[in-house]
Design goal:
The chain is an all-alpha fold. It has helices spanning 2-6, 19-25, 29-47, 52-67, 70-82, 88-96, 102-120, 126-147, 156-162, 166-183, 188-209, 214-238. Helix 3 runs antiparallel to helix 8 (126-147) and helix 4 (52-67) packs across helix 7 (102-120). The longest helix has 25 residues, at 214-238. It is globular, with a radius of gyration of 17 Å. The model has no long low-confidence stretch (mean pLDDT 93). This is Adenosylcobinamide-GDP ribazoletransferase.
Length: 239
Amino acid sequence: MSIQFLTRIPINIAIDFNEENLARSTFFFPLVGAILGSIGGLTYYLFSYINKDLASFLAVIAIIIGTGGLHLDGLGDTFDGFFSNRNKERILEIMKDSRIGTFGVIAVVLDILFKYILISNFKSHIPLILILSLSNSRLMVCHKMACKEVARPGGLGDMFYSSGPKKFAIMGGIVYVSIIAFLNPVFLIPLVFTFIIGEIISHTSYKKIGGFTGDVYGATIEIGEIASLLAFMGVLKWI
């Protein structure tokens, strides 16, 4: 269910879409991030022998294809709504509109450009950095799904929140943090920074619409990936 929900990887297995399975699926969100990061990392590795700029761009494209642009769609809708400077009800209406506006286009373009610039400027360990960055952002979103209020009853965010995923999100987090600490404790710094950025997003979302929606979850994943990549750039220069 985690792979089916967060990616476009073809998993043709029928799974009952109930609250118990929704809650359990959050345990594997970081693993899904690792799978997507592996796809991006492998793409970079294969094309880096031709040109690193090309490899960086294609790595970003591979990740977008892997997710089907799901989170980018949420990013665009969130920016269209939040930067409209309307009241809560109108913001939620704008976010539900399938059409993309100026702020949404700007957000999507800057997101892709920022990731390309960050990836192209890493000197080494790019596959590992992508794996951990995409995992970090999805673990952070698990925390939001488990602990933060939802702004739209009956929506996608409400389904996850109502399923009671906190126990599974915590267990998944403990396993993931243990793995990171085993690899290199310094790699916990980007995870912490990603969670800090997540709290800033939470504050903004509560202020704008009183909680989270599926679109804001998607935007949080995209921004979380950038935050983690940025933190890794600083960490690698430091060590």
